[in-house]
Amino acid sequence: MVTVMATDMATVMKKNRLSSPRPLTVALALLLALPATAQQQNVTGALPTQGIGTPAKMDDANRNDTEDTQQNRRAWAISPRIGLSLTATDHANISGYNNRGESDLITEITPGIRIDTQTARLRGYFDYSLRGQIYTQNGGSRHQNSLNSFVTLEAVDNWFFVDVSGNIAQQSISAFGPQSPGDTSINSNSTETATWRVSPYIRGTFGGLADYTLRYNASATRADDSRQASNLDVSQWIAQLRGGTPFHNLQWSLDGNRQTADYANGRKTDADLARILATYLITPQFSISASGGWERNNYAALNDENTTTYGYGFDWNPTPRTQISAFRERRFFGHGHRFSISHRFPMSSIRYSDSRDVSVLPNQFAMGGMGSIYDMYFDYFAAQIPDPLLRAAFVNALLTSSGIDPNRQVVSGFLSSRASNQRRQQLSYVLQGARNSLTLQLQRNEDSAIALALTPGADDFSHSSKIRQKGVSLNFSHRLTPLSNLNIMASRQKSSGNYTGTANLDSRTTLYQISLATKLGKKTTGSLSARHAKYEGNSNSYSENALIATFLYTY
Questions:
Q1: How confident is the model at residue 300 (pLDDT cuts 50, 70, 90)?
Q2: Helix or strand (DSSP H, E) at 400
Q3: Closest CA to 443 of 404, 368, 494, 510
Q4: Region of poorest pLDDT, from 7-11, 322-326, 355-359, 445-449
Q5: Which burial class, exposed, middle or buried, applies to 98 when counting CB atoms under 10 A from its CB (0-12, 13-18, 19+)?
Q6: CB of 163 within 8 A of CB of 35?
């Protein structure tokens, strides 16, 4: 386990500063050169999960509304903002050299900007904010960066594309260390982590016989505290051919993948995978598929190991509101699988997913943000608003007006320095009424180390070969008036390991929060929140109570 040691105020704050402004400069340059996208390539395993099934179609009325909105939408929308928050807490430093708590009044000033664009060739958004925090009692200050950006350029008409994305956020280093109840908490188990991705690709058709795609992915993950969190570079080539046969209902695809992951605190691993997939459409709503292939990697050994693969599955859409997908595949680590079932009711939506695959990215980025309230609403409105950019803008506006934190995660995850076998199970439910909304999330993750490590103690896998995390989150929002909302949130997370020594690899975090948000003016919103957090585990357990007042002005 990555042992979380207490540090003084200056050390913790220095660790949370961005070491260099260059990544932000690069992001701004990329934005100006290639301003637009909603696509984010998944590079979590040796071969990206192939989507099985098709989304439900939108009815004609909603389709017309979306087309009208898209035509009337400005090509560029720039929204600067500035926020001010005051946090009164009885436990500001949760790093743990004492458990008596350190009361503090924290002032946070947060300038930010959001840029949305939709043109003939450029699509995407860029959302950045800089959080400046001043601690009254401790006399210190620090800053944190936050970025969420996706950009796509159609460089050559309907053939050559470039995807660019960036993310900067605060991440937990260890699954067993203290989990921060808020971004103002001083926590040596948290570090600022940035991931940048560039993905050029081409797609087209070979004489009407087969569709082809060739994509290159390059990503870089950097953590402020690189001593405890491993920096990572990933490069990946993906090639695919898809076509039909003389049998109208039989289709095929040929996939190839080559991936290299280079960990600063680990070692460099390579993985190759090739497979052919055949799909037979039994009815317009039901199809079966089977695959066979070969893979080679050096995850578990210094030399490459070869394995044959095979799998089978089905897709079933019994109604336009219901989708069921399942696929099971024999892999080098055992059996991998993907299963999902979802159904949309008139005013609600439910979804369950279960997957097992290889993950080379740090745990949070392997999740791709899945589990957040934003993701649930983004999926919920998929049928009504198929365009991902229009949907993203709608969901952001909805959550902002309701005073709901869009980034709340069920399971915080952890940073790692090697590839792992990851199983993820998630159940989510969204109820959206005229004045009330309810979101329920349950998630269970199980990560097992499959790669050798060169640096002892580099991550949690150094002390536990298997790490389990499970969590539940419930969020209720009630519209009191056309301008005001009441929000109540409760969540609980538990992490455990299989270490048999004396170290405590069992931690629990509980959080309760109630908020009142209201519109103070045409461009100004305010909120008042009270929270209670409790962490149990290791020697630095803590309990925190806080009152937060927030004001946001959008230009």
A1: confident
A2: helix 388-402
A3: 494
A4: 7-11
A5: exposed
A6: no
Nearest Cα neighbor of 241 from 200, 266, 270, 212 is 212
Which is more confidently placed, 140 or 145?
A: 145
Calpha distance 181→504 (Å, rounded): 21
Q: Which residue carries 């008409």 as its tokens?
A: 157
| Residue in 210, 211, 177, 108 with CA at minimum distance from that of residue 415 | 177
d(CA 553, CA 72): 25
Amino acid in the structure at residue 546: A
Distance CA 118, CA 97 (A): 51
Residues 351 and 428: beta-carbon distance below 8 Å: yes
CB-CB contact of 84 with 526 (8 Å): no
Q: And the tokens for 298?
A: 């050096």
| 141-156 vs 122-135, strand pairing mode | antiparallel
Alpha-carbon span 494 to 236, nearest angstrom: 34
Share the mean pLDDT of the chain. Answer: 81
Closest listed residue to residue 255, CA positions, set 280, 234, 238, 236: 238
Angstrom distance (rounded) from CA 32 to CA 193: 23
pTM of the model: 0.81
Burial class (CB in 10 A: 0-12, 13-18, 19+), 331: buried
Is residue 381 within 8 A of residue 395, CB to CB? The reply is yes
Look up residue 404 and give its two tokens: 């709901």
Nearest-5° Cα angle at 434, 428 to 436? 50
The amino acid at residue 241 is L
Q: Is the separation of the CB atoms in 276 and 245 below 8 Å?
A: no
Joined together, the tokens standing for residue 405 give: 């934190």
Tell how strand 466-481 and strand 436-449 pair up: antiparallel
Indicate the pairing of strand 542-554 with strand 466-481: unpaired
Rounded-to-integer distance, Cα 219 and Cα 9, Å? 33
Q: How many CA atoms lie within 13 A of 457 on its CB side?
A: 5
At 248-261, the pLDDT tens digits run: 899 999 999 999 99
For residue range 328-363, what is the model confidence (pLDDT) as tens digits? 999 999 999 999 999 989 899 999 999 999 988 754
Long-range contacts of 125-129 (CB under 8 A, 24+ apart): 125/36, 125/38, 125/149, 125/150, 125/389, 125/392, 125/393, 126/27, 126/31, 126/35, 126/151, 128/24, 128/27, 129/81, 129/83
